[in-house]
Design goal:
Layout lengths: L1 E5 L2 E5 L2 H7 L5 H8 L6 H12 L4 E3 L4 E7 L3 H18 L4 E5 L2 E6 L9 H15 L2
Antiparallel strand pairs: 1-2, 3-4, 4-6, 5-6
Helix pairs in contact: 1-2, 4-5
Length: about 140
Amino acid sequence: MFTVRTGGAVWPCLSSRLASLLLPTLSRNSSKMASDSHWLTPPEREQLLAELRATGWVEVEDRNAIYKELHFKTFNQAFGFMSRVALQAEKMNHHPEWFNVYNKVQITLITHDCGGLSKHDIKMAKFIDKIVLNM
């Protein structure tokens, strides 16, 4: 269970899809987020996860999430990478969970409003992999 916040109102709900059905007065952003969750079908999930496993992503068993640890030459390189990911995260309105110490960046991707992996996570993971290849 989580809470949807819109225009100062707080709505407890079981999922954003349920919220969008039961609460049509939700703000435009919350409705958009609910409709853009991009749930993965089981066949899509298996195919896409196989592709990501090949690039070093691993599944987080107890969270229905994916995780990757990256090591860079310097802190500046790690921070530059994080800045590029942050800009993309803002564009997508999909933000990673991450942790950084010096040249190490640990990233977990999960879509909280659907309680697990979504196409947003896959898109973000592929974006991250593309940045790493170009560094």
